[in-house]
Design brief:
Elements (H helix, E strand, L loop, with lengths): L1 E6 L14 H8 L11 E5 L5 E4 L5 H6 L14 E5 L5 H4 L1 H4 L6 E6 H8 L15 E6 L5 E5 L2 E11 L20 E7 L4 E6 L7 H7 L4 E5 L7 H4 L21 H6 L6 E4 L13 H8 L3 E2 L5 E3 L1
Parallel strand pairs: 3-4, 4-5, 5-6, 10-11, 11-12, 12-13
Antiparallel strand pairs: 1-2, 1-14, 2-3, 7-8, 8-9, 9-10
Bound molecules: zinc ion.
């Protein structure tokens, strides 16, 4: 399985257009030790021919241009055989509307995520101009689904696993939160018996999370915030990490300490907010990750499993 990181930042990207935090300011001054990042997404493929996007970020157009494997091979064509959504947040699915040029799209999501996307959303009509433009594939918790390209089975399956999280901000007070609003994805290469976990939004520890991290070959883990009070402490709003349903990386009860003790051989934080000090390659917080053998995803990172 080939895993290509298209984007590695949380919603807003890095730097974020309206942000004057220390990280964003230093990046614009040219004194930041680390690259810019687009909003989180990865592409996976078993054969390098048919590709599946895990989330479609608002930056998907630029991410495709930046990745030659995703370029069209004919006058109207795409190697993107499907798009799999972890939740209905704008930063996870706005890219669907960017990919609207009459191209047939296969979208995999839970019914909860699909309902939030398709109901009362007039914009989705631009993806349904013909009966075959958008095909929806329902994901159910714990049930692997084969991923298929134009020529059939691609040698990959995807399994959704409910993760503690929240409904998208634009649906709060409109829907009742349930399991299936936010999932992690387990992608398996059925020929090579290799597996990838993609978990960009995780609110806290669960037994399911622990069993995933002890069994897969590579894990991408929610690295949104380093500290519980990261935004308020920098004067950037009132919400703590837990209110935004992201498990902080740092501290005694943080995800770093937990992840360091898991048996997964390749561990990577992704969906990193622009305020997070782990974006700075020379920061003490980044050194904590390095000491535990844990990486930070960057745009263009490619992994072969
Ligand atoms: Zn910022």
């Amino acid at each position: 399985m080939i895993v290509r990181v298209l984007g590695s930042a949380a919603g807003g990207g890095f730097p974020q257009w309206n942000c004057g935090c220390a990280n964003c300011l230093d990046f614009r001054k040219g004194v930041f030790d680390g690259p810019a990042r687009t909003q989180a997404s990865v592409a996976v493929s078993a054969d390098g021919r048919d590709w599946f996007l895990l989330n479609a970020s608002p930056d998907v157009r630029a991410q495709i241009e930046f990745s030659s494997v995703l370029h069209p091979r004919a006058p109207r064509d795409t190697p993107i055989a499907g798009i799999i959504l972890t939740n209905g947040d704008i930063d996870a699915c706005l890219g669907l509307f960017v990919l609207r040029e009459s191209q047939p799209l296969h979208v995999y999501a839970t019914n909860q995520v699909a309902n939030g996307l398709f109901e009362r959303n007039v914009l989705v009509r631009t993806l349904q101009r013909t009966a075959t433009q958008l095909t929806f594939h329902a994901l159910t918790d714990g049930v692997p689904v084969p991923l298929c390209g134009p020529d059939g089975n691609c040698g990959l399956t995807v399994e959704a696993k409910s993760m503690p999280g929240k409904v998208p901000i634009h649906l709060q007070d409109c829907v009742t939160p349930t399991d299936g609003d936010n999932v992690g994805l387990i992608v398996r290469d059925t020929h090579k018996n290799k597996s990838l976990a993609y978990l960009p939004s995780v609110a806290h520890w669960t037994p399911t999370l622990e069993s995933i991290a002890d069994t897969v070959d590579c894990i991408f883990m929610d690295g949104t915030f380093f500290q519980e009070t990261e935004l308020p402490a920098q004067g950037l709003g009132m919400h703590n990490a837990s209110v935004m349903s992201h498990w902080p990386v740092g501290g005694e009860s943080g995800s770093l300490r937990w992840l360091a003790n898991r048996s997964c051989p390749r561990k990577i934080f992704t969906h990193v907010n622009n305020t997070n000090p782990i974006l700075r390659e020379n920061s003490p917080e980044r050194a904590q990750l390095v000491a535990c053998g844990i990486a930070v995803a960057y745009d263009g990172l490619e992994i072969r499993l």
